[in-house]
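Appendix B, Record 12. Input sequence as logged:
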Amino acid sequence: MKTKNKSKLFLLITVLLFSSLYFLKHKSFFKEDGEYKKVYNNEHFNSKIASSESCFLCHQNTKGYSKHHNPELIGCASCHLGNTNSSDKEEAHKNMVLIPGNLVDAKQTCGTCHASELHKVENSLMTTNSGIVAVDKYFFGEADSLDYHYHIQEIKNSASDKHLRDLCANCHLGAKKTTFGAINQMSRGGGCNACHLNYSKEAKQDLEKYLSSNKKEIPLTHPSTDVFVSDTHCFGCHSRSSRISTNYMGLQETLLEEDDLAINTKYKVLEDKRVYKYIEEDVHHAKGMLCIDCHSSHEVMGDGIKYAHAEDAVKIQCADCHFKENPNTIPFDSLDVESKLVFYHRDYKHQDKPIIAVKKDKHPLVNTYIDSLGNAFLIGKKDGKIHALTPQGDVCSRDNAHKNVSCASCHSSWTSRCIGCHNAFDKDEKNAFDLLDKEFTKGQWKEYVAEFSSSQPTMGVREHKNEKIIEPAIPGMIMTIDLASFNDDVKKESQLFHRLYAPNSPHTTTKEVRDCKSCHSNSATLGYGKGALVYEIKENVGKWKFIPEYELNKNDNLPEDAWVPFLIKTDKKTVNSTRSDFRPFTVKEQQKLLLVGACLQCHKDDSKVMNETIAFGLKPIIKKVKPTCILPKDFVISAILD
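Logged structural output:
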């Protein structure tokens, strides 16, 4: 009996000693560089402490761990919990977390070492989905602002909430990963796993053997938890809604079925059986760059601040890498702990060189550096390839006429368009599935889409902090909502109709820019929808005419895909955007754009007069027009240029 008590006491002392050393180890992560690197390189760690866990009685000689999550360094229980004092299988596995990293228990697992990162993730839009909830509630008539803050896991069962539960609430980091296996196109959520879980070929094979043996053949290869995030980690959620991931790959969604496809076509069938066709990939994707080459941990995990919408949370701009004169930089010694972790984990060697820092919030892009000659480079996180970062071209840097035009407005080759969306509630749907609670229920909102297509982006105006920036937009929510189908108290003929465009970052970047006419005389770009926008000259009189491609919608008598009517003022109270600070062009702005469009009927993009317009603006050039120039007669030119 005494021997048994001594054994228990020894085990307790061992565990306490390990805990103390473990705490000291992670505390020293926050010391300055010399001590930090010693801990990082594990120079002082006694691996026998970690291996004293009873887990090692059964789980021996396993491999596949990342260097910094090896159980010889941190044990098994720091991630999986359980009872490390017992050699009995049932007791040892009590309260064990089989799949650590889900946000529901991350404070007890990942968060014990990465508390700061967990705090950021919990407040990020990828966890809260606040913007998605806010927009949905506003246009269902359940809120009076587009900018309220919400959390997707706190929604109830109103018409809007049910709509989110049925169609949208799958894509948030709080969704639990409940099955073993690698992240794939079908993956949603999973907390820390969503980005950091990686299965090697051997780990996948061992998992298959484990499952096929009725969980008796214990895997010898463990999946890795590391910083090597691939585009597949992003794809599951970001191939939906604005479809950033698929756009980046050059793929546009269609309404085709897999059976509709012929052999050797330019179509691709995703794992969920959606059919996409290839258009043109982003130039960065073509060069082998990953999403995280631009969107670092500081953006992906967030900064701890609760933002209303995605564009508020994203800090990086094209000009951070493709700068006008000199980049904004930071020395290695001034990097924050999180950035140093990534730097060391990726085994970078450019401590002696300035690193580019994002202008908006100063966070560093640790995979960049400036050499002694002032040249900028980016190290691709996929393959370590060195990419030269070219400064802005002369056209961009000397262009005074387009100072308030975003880079994406000119450098995006295409973006998705979705029109004719009808939302109705089917009370009799027996196989309805609640994406938030992950359970079958009765009754479900269904979405019927008329058409998926693509075009060069429409343009809109962002009015923010006394600035007016022209940005790309898409017809994301031209839709009807049949409220009566959900609520018996609503009149049967009651139907909500919204004609809404949304700000968009297409992620279809090209080196070449769109030509001038594609903005100044393109009906879809200006917000009228697809169609023929023609400048007619009769008897020395010029006049713009527009013939829409689509029929007029009975709800507002505008073409099905339009944003605004052709050169007609709209009521200031009309809500036609998913953002309170983003709008279509006013009639005066439309006229100014079309005035240049009229000039482009005769003058080529690279002509002397157009180059002068770019350099000096439109007003001084218009004063020098020749009598042979035929400008739109129904435009009051002086008023347009004021």
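The chain has a mean pLDDT of 89.
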